[in-house]
Amino acid sequence: MFKTQPATRNRSSLAALLVFALLVPAVDAAQVDQPAIVASEKDGSQWLSHGRTYDEQRFSPLKQITAENVGKLGLSWFIDLDNHRGLEATPLFSDGVLYASLSWSRAIAVDVSTGKVLWTFDPQIERGKARDACCDAVNRGVALWNGKVYIGTLDGRLIAIDAKTGKQVWSQQTTDNSKPYTITGAPRVVKGKVIIGTSGAEYGVRGYFSAYDAETGDMAWRFYTVPGDPNKPYEHPELAEAAKTWKGDEYWKSGGGGTVWDGMAYDPELDLLYVGTGNGSPWNRELRSPGGGDNLYLSSILAVHPDSGKLAWHYQVTPGDSWDFTATQQITLATLEVDGKPRKVLMQAPKNGFFYVLDRETGKLLSAEKFGKVTWAEKIDLATGRPVEAPGVRYEKEPIVMWPSPFGAHSWHSMSYNPQTGLVYIPYQEIPGVYRNESKDFVQRKGFNTGAGFSDATEIPREAVSGALLAWDPVKQKEAWRVPYPHYWNGGTLSTAGNLVFQGTAAGDLLAYSADKGEKLWSFPAQTGIVAAPMTYSYKGEQYVAIMAGWGGVAPLIGGDAALAPGVGNVSRLLVFKLGGQATLPPLPQKKVAAQTRIPKPVEAPATTLAAGQQLFGSYCSVCHGVGAVSGGLVPDLRKSDEAHRNLFQQIVLDGVLRPLGMPSFKDTLTPDEVEKIKLYVMSREYADYAKAQQQTATKATP
């Protein structure tokens, strides 16, 4: 499954790995607890929590690698990973061992002195669960505490693993598995409690996050982010107030949304845990809350007491969200000079395109400015804390094109804050969003429900999207510098005391820039798109930089032509660098271009049949096979299926004959007639693509 490589590439079988893992001696795991995590703020040798420290700055005080010598950085060693979906985890480092997660909620431990895998853990996710994952079968990382490694799984379990042996200590089912919940986010451990949320808002679930005893797995408390059935007692008093901001009785029947799938931070001095919440279910507020309302606590930052789960304060980033503008993006704590005085603040650059600075003790909004192209709102009114929305932006009457899109001006890709430069380094992306009100023809399905016309999409043109590394001054609330990229979905960032910013890109490069000026100083061709964030650690007097490299996530699955633009595939590896590193990656095998063997014919079917097929495809298929059936390259492009697979279309979709490969069964949802409509739609898209290519060829040939 994994193979350490100093210079050559060789993939091991799972059986060989298991034998190897039994032969490798266990390495003692150092004590990781709250004092250790707090102390690591000044001691950069370890990386003990998801954002390195509780403040989630992703800044390292290490400075052996600097802007002056980073040009000598080289590959020290790497491990090939048996992984064909996206890698989004930031590895943790403790006492000579790197701990990380892979797709399908698997975990690994690697001895950095030898580059050998110490153990692997596979929770055996039933691959059909991919049906409930909007954004790839990914996992953003593990947590460490008291000799244990914690991981959330795609099927909703929270599992504690012995850090020495890789054996399961306990497992807790955190979700109702009859509902389309998933977990893709990294846990955090605060005061002996493991904090974990869920994903699944697009599929119709009710959001919450929970705290579990790190030693026993017993649930300590649970905070629901949206109110439930008003005919039953609310689980905690905050929900009674939240219910006043919802209209009608549809939201609690369809879940409401508000899932917690990423951003968290903790202030030990104030003893407050900060949590970001997600979008509504469905996206379109007119469907889930007819008549309006802010719909608390969607798209909000919550401050809760970690001992009890009681709410201290909240700030709603996007009231009445109708655009999938989550506030689950990274939450970063810092001390900034505000009005000439040092102030403890919380910073976030969520999907909606505004950079927020809040007083983290009270939740008071201090400032909020656009950090990119934003057309949905003019500004954030500092007196009310609310956005001043553009006319028609809620698309009740007319469809609208606006910025940002559901991909966000900034998505889950980690930003970093460097207290020496005073800058935040944001993986920015610029992608238009198209929304249409489906209130008159909306059908709630056991699939991807937005109510915003998502199923209408047939392409995301590559010329319409772009990205950038953006250095943002949170005090002046303006851009300090930027490095433009031709593609979106670039990786997270790491900043260091060596005046450096590291970032991987969709095009397949790991790059280093000067943190103060944004000068490109070093690059490494990783042979795969990078979406995860780098980390750094020190071992035996040497500083290392490590990254999980592997193209994937929602954009390469759903993004169609724009996702194909970088021209990369998934080559999953753990890459580790140091000054003077001499290892090299082997050349990639030459791509084989299949010859055109089928000349498609026009699909003879009524327009209503193809329209129905498009709607069904958008709800059930596009989140993996791409908008308009244009695959982003991670999974098969259905337009190019061979005749054998096309003849088995019913068996694949209904009977799940390819379920072990991650293609779920939809027998409980789709009828044979509906599957046939999807097939005809896919075939029509194949013909449209063929006809377009023929026309372009004829145009070029015309003098």
Short description:
The chain folds into two domains: 2-579, Methanol Dehydrogenase, Chain A (8 Propeller); 607-701, Cytochrome c-like domain (Cytochrome Bc1 Complex, Chain D, domain 2, Orthogonal Bundle), CATH 1.10.760.10.
Explain how this protein is built.
The N and C termini lie far apart (55 Å). The protein is 14% helix and 30% strand. The protein has eleven helices and 40 strands. It has 703 residues and is of the alpha+beta class. Residues 6-29 have low confidence and may be disordered.
Considering the chains and any ligands shown, give keywords for the structure.
14% helix; 703 residues; alpha+beta; five-stranded antiparallel β-sheet; 40 strands; Methanol Dehydrogenase, Chain A; Cytochrome Bc1 Complex, Chain D, domain 2
Strand order, main sheet: write it out.
1-3-40-39-38
Q: Ends: how far apart?
A: 55 Å
| Secondary structural class | alpha+beta
Shape: globular
Assign the CATH superfamily of the largest domain: Quinoprotein alcohol dehydrogenase-like superfamily
Mean pLDDT: 92
What is the tally of helical segments?
11
Q: What is the CATH T-level topology of the largest domain?
A: Methanol Dehydrogenase, Chain A
What Rg is obtained from the alpha carbons, in whole angstroms?
24 Å
Number of domains: 2
